[in-house]
Amino acid sequence: METVSLTHTAALARLGHALSDETRTRVLLALREAPAYPADLADALGVSRQVMSNQLACLRGCGLVEAIPDGRRTWYRLADTHLAPALDDLLRLVVTVDPTCCSSDGCTCS
């Protein structure tokens, strides 16, 4: 088993922060399918372009997505090829956890 370093814990904390917001989670899940332009992501997720811009800035700051200039536009993709399979693994894990346990109001598990 690999030794866990402060770098590992910091990276997991950033991922946890990113996944703590439903819109950011939806962005990551969309980008695991294919790179996209912010306007297309905003339309697909039903959020304003300003909200999308803010969420993409957060995800860039966390090091999870990267912006790729394309002429006058910029498209986004996951920053690491390991992230898509990790998200797939997390999705499989989520179905084994009681989805009614925790809500946006906080954890109700006892």
Automatic annotation (TrEMBL):
Protein source organism: Sediminihabitans luteus
Lineage: Bacteria, Bacillati, Actinomycetota, Actinomycetes, Micrococcales
Gene3D superfamilies reported in the protein's UniProt record: Winged helix-like DNA-binding domain superfamily/Winged helix DNA-binding domain
InterPro entries: ArsR-like_HTH (IPR011991), HTH_ArsR_DNA-bd_dom (IPR001845), HTH_Metal-responsive_Reg (IPR052543), WH-like_DNA-bd_sf (IPR036388), WH_DNA-bd_sf (IPR036390)
Protein name as annotated: ArsR family transcriptional regulator
Gene Ontology biological-process annotations: response to cadmium ion; response to lead ion
Residues covered by the HTH arsR-type domain: 4-98
Record-linked PANTHER family: HTH-TYPE TRANSCRIPTIONAL REGULATOR CMTR, TRANSCRIPTIONAL REGULATOR-RELATED
Family annotation (SUPFAM superfamilies): Winged helix' DNA-binding domain (SSF46785)
